[in-house]
Amino acid sequence: MLDVQGLQTIYLAGGRDPIPAVRGIDLHIKSGSATALVGESGCGKSTAALSIMRLIRRPLGDIVGGSIRLDDTELLSLSQSAMRNVLLNEIGYVPQDPTVALDPLYSVRSQIADVCPPASKLERDERMVALLERLGVIDARKRLKSYPHEFSGGMRQRVAIAIALAKDPALLIADEPTTALDVTTQLGILRLLDEMRRERDLTMLFVTHDLAVARLVCQEVAVMYGGIVVETGPIGTIMDRPLHPYSRALLDADSGNAEPQSRLRAIPGQPPSLTAMPAGCPFAPRCPLAEPACSDAVPAVEVHGAVKVRCIKAGQS
Amino acid sequence: MASPLRADRPSVARPASGLRSRLANRRRWKYPYFSGGVLALFVLSGLIGPLVAPAEPTGIDLANALKPPIGFGGSWSRPLGTDELGRDILSRLLDGARVALIVTIAAVVLAGAVGLAVALISGYRGGRLDAFLMRTTDASMAFPVILLAIVIVGIFGASTLNVVIILTVAGWPSYARVLRSEVLRTKTMDYVTMSRTMGGNGRWAVRRHILPNILPTILVLVSLQVGLAIIAEGSLSFLGLGVPPPAPSWGRMLSDGRKYLDEAWWLPIMPGIALSLTVLASNLLGDWLRVNNDPTTKR
């Protein structure tokens, strides 16, 4: 179980004012289920993922508020070395671009071995082979000796997933794991992640900008905009009936949902700059429903059944 | 047989001919024969030179002063001629190689170690420490080497150790600069971030990922700096700020010999050739290393 409450992360920029990138987000992921963190570039979704691993640190930035509980451990109160232990044993991370996520100088065996629990060399190799084969790497025993450049993109991502899973983690954080892959490979990797979650009862945080991709692997979704979660709930419910104007705009902007022959509805304007965040709802300047009250304060959370939404005009159109 | 598809096109690959094409194809040379050979000779001379030298490098023989080399009326007992005091030039060159080798290796290793340490700290830690270290590097780079040499030699006198110190102080900033940028480039690589997500700390990232990945650059830099160090050592000796006599140094042989350029050209020319060849070889080797060991030019 991962429980994030009011997480706030800032980036520090020299002598200037700190830049708020994550402005108090709540996430609750049950053990064995997957939640998607969806939003545009720069909305803070990757920062949130990195914050959960406490990798945003001075001098780059800092986590300035909130709580992150993994099972029964409060991650934010751990010492550096205790946190490293959690990262080594409990949290697996699948990177966005597998072509640069593996060190070109080391064989696959050597890179997986870095995170393997201690065991005899033989036993460790057996486990690696079993894991890689489960992840669809053909001829895994021979491939252990290979170097990253000898693998294709999809295979490299499988190796990266093997690195994430070799420690048998409780939480898997995948940061746009299929964005750098071609479409045919994407589906295979997504299926694999879904299977792994079921088999190993993984708690999974899936960061993506693509709601359609999220639907394939996640049960819940949290839509982020301007550093806050604007809508969260079961992914089917939200995709069928989005309450927040931004969620709706995001769905409308997906070509897969558009009427054939119709113009694609892009969201006008640009996401707010992190340095000049509007005072109220961050989406107000681009929102078709915006009214003066929207700019007064960040809207409070409204509960609509299983869905929580931050909008004073939730569900209206 | 000519393929029908190719019939209307001129052949792209022209036949290789002579030196020009060899130079053009230098990137594809498999082994650095010339530079490797010259440098091997240099190192060998430094190691066993005195054993094979035909005469005592400091042995004065005024009766045989200013004898020309073989081919210009000289004899085999003094293959490269003798200087104004009748000392055998070949023996002096061989002995000078030892001086140059010791000074160069010491200076390159020390300057490299200091520069690498600064680069790793500066590049990896970043922040204010980085700014401080880089401004220090700038200041050291801006400080004229010759002035530094005069000050150090003026205070402590000329000695081999002081030459090494001067070359180290003058040499570390270039390592720091180049390697820092390499550290910066490498540390943003996803595999370094990945090692953090696996619970690795900074020291682990540096040892496991950053250092091995900048090693090719270190090698290239070292081989180029060897050339610079040899020249710098020669220049210091030329100015009388280097290795003190009677130990023969190529720079001082050049400097002393230039007075005899019109009557005995071999005095300055021989050490000049030795110096130029060694520096050229070390630069060519650096070039070869860069092209052949740099993953970015290979993959």
Set down the secondary structure blueprint.
The complex is a heterodimer of chains A (317) and B (299).
Chain A: E1 2-11, E2 19-29, E3 34-38, H1 45-52, E4 61-70, E5 73-74, H2 80-89, E6 91-94, H3 98-101, H4 108-113, H5 121-134, H6 140-143, H7 153-165, E7 171-175, H8 183-200, E8 203-208, H9 211-217, E9 220-225, E10 228-234, H10 235-240, H11 245-252, E11 302-304, E12 307-309
Parallel strand pairs in A: 3-8, 3-9, 6-7, 7-8
Antiparallel strand pairs in A: 1-2, 1-4, 4-5, 9-10, 10-12, 11-12
Chain B: H1 18-24, H2 33-52, H3 89-125, H4 127-142, H5 145-156, H6 160-187, H7 190-197, H8 202-238, H9 250-257, H10 266-293, H11 295-298
Helix pairs in contact in B: 2-3, 2-10, 3-4, 3-6, 3-8, 4-6, 5-6, 6-8, 7-8, 8-9, 8-10, 9-10
Can you characterise this structure?
The complex is a heterodimer of chains A (317) and B (299). Helices cover 31% and strands 23% of the residues of chain A. Chain A contains 11 helices and 12 strands. In chain A, helix 7 runs parallel beside helix 8. The two termini of chain A are 35 Å apart. The model of chain A has no long low-confidence stretch (mean pLDDT 89). With 299 residues, chain B is an all-alpha fold. Chain B has one domain: MetI-like (MetI-like fold), CATH 1.10.3720.10. Helices cover 69% and strands 0% of the residues of chain B. The N terminus of chain B is likely disordered.
Number of strands of chain A: 12
Overall domain count of chain B: 1
CATH topology of chain B: MetI-like fold
CATH superfamily of the domain at 1-90 and 217-258 and 279-317 in chain A: P-loop containing nucleotide triphosphate hydrolases
Offer a concise description of the structure.
Chain A has helices spanning 45-52, 80-89, 98-101, 108-113, 121-134, 140-143, 153-165, 183-200, 211-217, 235-240, 245-252; strands at residues 2-11, 19-29, 34-38, 61-70, 73-74, 91-94, 171-175, 203-208, 220-225, 228-234, 302-304, 307-309. Chain A has 317 residues and is of the alpha/beta class. In chain A, the strands form two sheets. In chain A, strands 6-7-8-3-9-10-12-11 form an eight-stranded mixed beta sheet, with helices on both faces. In chain A, strands 2-1-4-5 form a four-stranded antiparallel beta sheet, with helices on one face.
